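Hi C.,

You asked whether I'd gotten around to modeling the 449-residue construct. I have! Everything is below, sequence then structure, no commentary in between.
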Amino acid sequence: MPRNSQLTKSLLHAVDIDYAPQRFTVYTARDLDRIEQLEQVPESLRFEMKVVSSVLPFRVNEYVLRELIDWERVPDDPMFQLTFPQRGMLSDVHFNRMAMAIRSGMDKQGLQALAKEIRADLNPHPAGQLEHNQPLDANGELINGLQHKYRETVLFFPSQGQTCHSYCTFCFRWAQFVGDKALRMATTEADKLYGYLRAHPEVTDLLITGGDPMVMKSRQLKAYLEPLLHPEFNHIQTIRIGTKALTFWPQRFITDDDADELIELLHHIVLAGKHVAIMSHYNHWRELSTDIARAAIRRLRATGAEIRSQGPLLAHINDNADDWAKLWNEQVKLGIVPYYMFVERDTGAHRYFEVPLYKAWQIYRDAMKNVSGLGRTARGPSMSAGPGKVEVQGITVVNGEKVFVLRFIQAREHDRVQQPFFAQYDEQVTWFDQLKPASGQDPRLFEAI
């Protein structure tokens, strides 16, 4: 597919502004002192960032710094909270241990050992994603870099895509980015992926995930995806690509050296009969506000790919109905399909971001009151727990007992899909594992199989 093909020229009409190429500049924990905008932040806050980023991953790029963060509102600005480490992301015990180690001048090896010890307490792989979701090949050996939790969908973690243009502070995949191979899910063995898909005709959806697959060069993504167009993979109806690039680096689809090649690739896959779904992560309506972000959305949609949006409900960032309603309404206006509101997963910095389930449901319901039917495609609040994706559908009274009304959107045990069930109402509960069965409910519904 040549760069200057007629197809590329036609797709370029989706971009109505001539954007100049921009250099991708990234900052990590080692570079905190080089971020010019942080000069206005108190020294005490910068030290807290240094402590937290010694444990949890930090990465931000120049586009986020310049275009998305309102520096007049720091530290309360939601995009600052989304991308910069905050003290509350670690417990007092963990924070103080690392702070003392840094102040004492502990060497690099000692700091790394302490960080590894702290990370082990942060549930790096929730919901049994290594113990229960990793599939076996024909010889009974584990296949690295694949997950198969639900019958129809396989997740693939290409090693070249196990980073992001910037890191979200809440990320439930944070363990991918801390440099510990024992915590990482990734593979370069595409042949094992193809072999597994051949052996499992019940699989209809392949989700390319990470990290962020859109950090890969287009030629790398093409090498993984084009073999799926062979007739032996006709059962793969949908190719999903999880990404935050539309927020953190929309230039990926507009001005990067291989942006045209990426657009052609996606269009080629659509023309070949596959449904291409860009599973885009959004956390705040401001992520949609820049001209280049909107241009990237238009250009992606022009390929025939569909963009679906998902993201968790987060304290300090979007824990109010107005922000969600504005986000979903703006997405519908731009042609994006609202897909999921998630509950913050029980890993990493979840205690900083978690919202009680009763409040999460109230926020979801109030937001839904202020969107049209096209925006009510967003499901939630949803928890990706051990037994499956569990949605909080409401709060009611059954036989005199106040309960949460729950439903399996997806389930490890396939017969549970769409099954409603009830849990005891508790305003302290923030995650599925804390719920207790309501009277008469089978406790096995609350257990992973």
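If it helps when you're writing up: Residues 22-120 form one domain.

Thanks,
B.
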